[in-house]
Design goal:
The protein has 450 residues and is mostly helical. The chain is built from 17 helices and four strands. The structure holds heme C (HEC) (2 copies).
Length: 450
């Protein structure tokens, strides 16, 4: 999508690029620099064309809207009958799943008009073709290039999480949606009421809420319930590992994966936190642990005086630490994790255990996106994390051999769900909330009654 395509640029880059555009040579209206006639239809459309956008020094994994080939799937089936390796999905009694709610939630999820300036949807940071996370940034970028504190977690299998966010501060998917929608550095809607009012005036939603919720229109509950319903269908399993371990098919994975799983559950003891049960595996324990990463960031590390930032393909600038800090949400990245919720000093730098399902698709890794590859994560655990007085006693040097590391990595790569392609194809078929001719230009016209 248009905004996802820009995801490769750093927050600072976006800001500075904004300034750079001002300095670009002014163009006489109706003419291109080359003197060709100006084709207005080229200035906007269903999505960005990426011709000439990528170069040897800049690649993106997000797809242009024009290249997307969608195919609608009957999503409710994934949630009611989860793929091999997953337990039954918890569905709250007061928000039973229906096709009408899922359809509505899916439309909301991809709708950019839910942000203050009609540019950002949930899918900007939870990009379907990037594991419903963002592979190109350690921490994603919200409205107007504002940076966000943490790495986007994958939304695959989020239905099973007992605590949401990496510090566990929210408890239900229904409530969670209001945080990104109203956070000033994410979708930046000024209030819940603002979003409700906007949705009530969008013609293409007419009747959809009422049909899904027995006559009830968009409100604080129904918007949350619809979005939660869509997210509960994003169950991805039936991976090669599942087919072998739960399905009993010896040939579903190779010997390296089997040895890797043996280290995972034996010598390396990963399984103590990333749990596997007899008949299913979520690879989480619903708990919070200090691996030392948050501590390491809090003591600063050696940050360079200047950092080279890419503004656009082939355009670089050396930015001082001060200019980077000026646009960073938190100057000293001392992210205290669970402590922010409990205020218990013993909880400093504890983060929720992340799932390992589909982990090949969800780089970069950890709460701050510190590692680009699974090998780096394995090396980190092998070193015993970063020692600090609150380090989990379960994290200790492992002394893995090169072959053990390779096997462990092969095992992690075997966790990609067999139905991922279906979920991505379905996402590609979703409408993306382009501002239509009937929509008022919310931010500049006084159509919301302010
Ligand atoms: C600007 C980027 C951005 C946007 C837009 C965004 N998210 Fe997120 N999302 C994140 C980040 C970053 C986190 C982790 C934050 C944290 O742990 O504090 C997150 C966390 C979540 C979680 C919790 C996942 C977990 O494993 O705990 C859910 C669910 C979620 N987002 C859904 C949504 C929905 C629904 C929308 C749209 C209404 C949305 N997000 C919009 C970046 C974004
Ligand atoms: C003490 C509990 C614990 C143990 C033991 C443990 N992990 Fe983790 N793991 C976590 C926590 C907590 C996180 C999230 C850390 C963060 O976000 O900073 C995590 C994150 C990860 C991630 C990144 C997931 C993502 O999407 O970002 C990978 C990969 C991983 N662990 C693999 C392993 C492997 C392999 C082992 C064994 C060598 C292991 N873990 C042992 C608790 C543990």
């Amino acid at each position: 999508m248009r905004h996802a395509a820009r995801a490769g640029l750093h927050a600072v880059a976006l800001l500075v690029a904004g300034l750079a555009v001002v300095q670009a040579p002014a163009r006489t209206s109706g003419e291109l620099d080359s003197g060709q006639a100006f084709d207005e239809s080229q200035t906007h459309g269903p999505g960005d064309v990426k011709e000439g956008y990528e170069r040897a020094d800049y690649r993106t994994r997000s797809r242009s809207l024009l290249d997307r080939r969608g195919a609608r799937k009957d999503l409710i089936r994934f949630a009611l009958d989860p793929p091999l390796g997953l337990p039954p999905a918890p569905i709250p009694a007061d928000n039973p799943l229906t096709r009408a709610k899922i359809e509505l939630g899916r439309k909301l999820f991809f709708d950019r008009r839910l942000s203050i300036n009609d540019t950002l949807s949930c899918a900007t940071c939870h990009i379907p073709e990037q594991g419903f996370t963002n592979n190109e940034l350690r921490t994603p970028v919200g409205v107007e290039g504002r940076s966000v504190l943490r790495n986007s977690p994958t939304l695959y299998n989020v239905a099973y999480q007992e605590h949401l966010f990496l510090d566990g501060r929210e408890i239900s998917l229904e409530n969670q949606v209001w945080q990104p929608m109203t956070a000033h550095n994410e979708m930046a809607a000024p209030s819940i009421g603002y979003v409700i009012r906007k949705l009530r005036r969008m013609r293409d939603y007419e009747g959809m809420f009422e049909r899904a919720f027995d006559g009830r229109g968009p409100d604080v509950l129904t918007i949350g319930q619809a979005l939660a319903s869509y997210q509960r269908t994003l169950l991805a399993a039936d991976s090669p590992f599942d087919r072998w371990y739960f399905g009993g098919r010896a040939d579903a994975v190779d010997e390296s994966v089997k040895r890797g799983f043996a280290f995972f559950s034996g010598k390396a003891q990963c399984i103590v936190c990333h749990r596997v049960r007899e008949d299913h595996a979520l690879f989480i324990d619903h708990r919070f642990h200090n691996t030392g990463l948050g501590y390491a960031a809090s003591v600063g590390g050696n940050r360079p005086e200047t950092t080279r930032v890419q503004l656009a393909p082939g355009v670089f600038a050396d930015l001082s630490r001060a200019s980077i800090d000026a646009v960073t949400q938190q100057r000293l990245p001392n992210d205290l994790g669970l402590y922010r919720i409990t205020e218990d000093p013993g909880d400093r730098w504890k983060f929720r255990t992340q799932t390992l399902r589909n982990v090949s698709l969800t780089a970069p890794y950890m709460h701050n996106g510190r590692f680009d590859t699974l090998r780096e994560v394995i090396d980190f655990y092998d070193r015993g994390g970063v020692p600090n007085e609150l380090l989990s006693p379960l994290i200790r040097p492992l002394n893995l051999t090169e072959r053990e590391k390779r096997d462990l990595e092969a095992f992690l790569h075997s966790l990609t769900g067999g139905n991922v392609a279906d979920l991505v194809a379905d996402a590609f078929a979703a409408p993306i909330g382009d501002l239509g001719p009937e929509d008022p230009n919310w931010t500049h016209e006084n159509t919301l009654g302010y």
